[in-house]
Amino acid sequence: METLNLILTIVQVLCGLAVIAVVMLQSGKSAGLSGAIAGGADTFLSKNKAKSVDAKLAKMTKWVAIVWILLTLILCII
Question: Contact 46/73 with Cβ under 8 angstroms?
């Protein structure tokens, strides 16, 4: 039983680090005045590419956070 607890704790810590990493990789939603000035130089395709990467990162954040919450609940029950 202690081996299972240790394995789940290690997986939980790794999931927590993954959540932190994925959130840090996401771009900010408000770029401010500098984003408004420099944003005119972006092409339409590069904007869509950035949004698709951000969408994938947001989806990944959601799923890794769900796994982390489930592991936390399982560890509390054990």
Answer: no
Do residues 22 and 57 make contact, with C-beta atoms less than 8 angstroms apart? Answer: yes
7-57 per-position pLDDT tens digit: 999 999 999 999 999 999 988 776 555 555 555 555 555 566 657 888 899
> Is 11 within 8 Å of 71 (Cβ atoms)?
yes
Question: What does the domain layout of the chain look like in residue ranges?
Answer: 2-77
Could you tell me if 21 and 65 are in contact, meaning their C-beta atoms sit under 8 angstroms apart? no
Burial 20-41 (b: 16+ CB within 10 A, else e): eebeeeeeeeeeeeeeeeeeee
Token pair, residue 68, equals 């982390």
Task: Indicate the pTM of the whole model.
Answer: 0.69
CB contact at 8 A, 78 and 4: yes
